[in-house]
């Protein structure tokens, strides 16, 4: 279906945003990994806020992981639609998309350690001493 009107039309923007939220809701309801990643992100952002650490790198790392998980879910759905039977190329596509999420998650852990580690260490040392 073609979309009509200007990209700056607020009505068109809200309609598009509604479709995007529908996709996010579907993935949240149907994918356990996405739910885990959402709540891990909430905890990481809460820790950054509570420790007065920079929030932007943590938020960006969380957004990257969640975005790639959404793309992974979309790719899996398209592969399942186009190749309902097992096929080696379908497996490669799904595994590669899952690998992208894994790499982003590892990167997010590194960002979390770098950004949250020092203030968490200071907080722990002050509480223990």
UniProtKB/TrEMBL annotation:
- Per its UniProt record, what Pfam families does this chain match? DAGK_prokar
Q: Tell me where in or outside the cell this protein is found.
A: Cell membrane
Q: What are this entry's molecular-function GO terms?
A: kinase activity
Major location, coarse class?
membrane
Which InterPro entries does the UniProt record give?
Answer: DAGK, DAGK_sf, UDPK
What is the membrane topology listed in the Swiss-Prot or TrEMBL record?
Answer: Multi-pass membrane protein
Which keywords does the record carry?
Answer: ATP-binding, Cell membrane, Kinase, Lipid biosynthesis, Lipid metabolism, Membrane, Nucleotide-binding, Phospholipid biosynthesis, Phospholipid metabolism, Transferase, Transmembrane, Transmembrane helix
Protein name in UniProt: Diacylglycerol kinase
Q: Which organism is it from?
A: Deinococcus aerophilus
